Amino acid sequence: MSLDLKLIKMLTDHYWLKHDTVVDKISFKGRTFFNKYERIDKMLTTAIQMQHRRGDIMVAHSLINKRNQVENIVIDYNGRDPERFYHRAQLLLREEGYLNFTAYKTKTEGHLHVYIHKGHTTLQEAVQLGKTLSMKLAAKQPKQWRMYPNDEQPPEYQILNIPYDVYAKERGASFAKHM
Predict the structure, then answer these.
(1) 159 has which bridge partners?
(2) Mode of pairing for the β-strands spanning 31-35 and 159-161
(3) Which of 30, 73, 83, 160 is close enough to 116 for a disulfide, judged by CB 3.0 to 4.6 Å?
(4) Do the Cβ atoms of 64 and 123 come closer than 8 Å?
């Protein structure tokens, strides 16, 4: 598995396995969600990640830990112009003071997951930061993304498929002292 996935600091005490059929029906804030992911309370091992990478199974990881904290705020971009989107997102993130983030390619061509490596952040704060970033990004381009974590979906939906390859990464700690 790619060493760059270590940057995500994925929760590995469990994982989510995608099925072809609905596994669970969830009521949340007056809406019904049909979940195709089953929570597996076993270690997310390198072997499982390799099966995912080969396409044998589809595996997702949770963003929220047991203490209701997150390590990453994620922009799930589902548009048609990843270069333009990443360029704008990169400029905004730097401007907002986020110096460590990584964009990963997903299974779908042109879609990106931009992981903003925030470190121990409460779920409430992460949701609020995500809303603020999304609003600022939406001022510059059409909204073709969803923020994670969010308060519009149940906790079972605060998961993301394990990414396949790095699209681009930004490590600004070395030049942060010059800013």
Answers:
(1) 62
(2) unpaired
(3) 73
(4) yes
